[in-house]
Design a protein that fits this description.
Length: 258
């Protein structure tokens, strides 16, 4: 009974998608993970926070029209100088699922063309150093989302990733396990951005670290991307030794076979 656990609507700064367009595709439980992105360089350093009052009203209206079970999620973009503000926001809300992401460095989103002009190896190492430091510091997050976000617009091969940052990634994965978090298999990264080989490299490292919790997310910002690539991703997961997905309710993972 798996369902997409990384979905955006017009409550996110970078999406205009309508709930109804997703809901017309499924009767399964439904969750959106709207962006919580403070000091967002993609929006003139604004604080992008979902309007939770309007969001609650929208869910109440949808419950009267659709048979789905509605859950509440959020994608928290970690930024070290704003950690206390992020924590206060999350503590004030009742979420089922918090995705923890690393989207920007305070000046640029990691998908900004700026990163095509910097030294590739140094950028990759810096990105994962920041991810490790964030995971060590942040007391929140149920799932580490798209571990490769900072590489999406770049051409980084599995050979390069292993040579440059295997120890950092192994430390990250060990910390994910220690904290009881899940590792997200992000099908947008895998199939739209062409990073499936990076996931195929890293998933066995996660399993070797004792990792058992994995989630599937399409990272859909438009309804036509909802649940895309799930069949292919599950095939890759099986090759990596996984047979269950973690589904989150009230921050607790429930395992389902696939």
């Amino acid at each position: 009974m798996e369902y997409d656990q990384h979905v955006h609507t017009y409550f996110s700064f970078d999406s205009q998608a309508q709930f109804e367009d997703y809901l017309n595709q499924t009767e399964r439980p439904f969750i959106t993970t709207e962006h919580l992105e403070l000091s967002n360089p993609e929006d003139r350093a604004s604080d992008d926070e979902p309007d939770q009052t309007a969001y609650t009203a929208k869910l109440q209206a949808l419950k009267r029209r659709y048979p789905n079970r509605f859950l509440r999620g959020i994608e928290c973009g970690y930024f070290a100088p704003r950690q206390a503000d992020l924590q206060r926001y999350l503590q004030a809300q009742d979420f089922d699922l918090v995705l923890l992401s690393f989207h920007h460095d305070g000046q640029y989103d990691y998908q900004d063309p700026h990163f095509k002009t910097v030294d590739l190896k140094r950028h990759v190492q810096t990105y994962y150093d920041r991810m490790l430091a964030g995971l060590q510091s942040a007391p929140f997050g149920d799932v580490l989302a798209h571990f490769d976000y900072g590489l999406r617009i770049l051409d980084v091969t599995p050979v390069q990733l292993e040579a440059w940052v295997k120890p950092q990634l192994q430390a990250i994965l060990a910390l994910v396990v220690k904290r009881g978090m899940a590792f997200e298999v992000n099908t947008k990264s895998m199939y739209q951005w062409g990073n499936a080989a990076l996931y195929e490299l890293v998933l066995p490292w996660y399993r070797q670290a004792g990792g058992e919790l994995v989630t599937l997310g399409s990272d859909a910002h438009t309804a036509d991307k909802f649940q895309t690539g799930f069949a292919e991703a599950k095939t890759l997961l099986r090759r990596s030794g996984f047979s269950q997905l973690a589904l989150y309710q009230h921050h607790r993972p429930h395992l389902t076979a696939f």
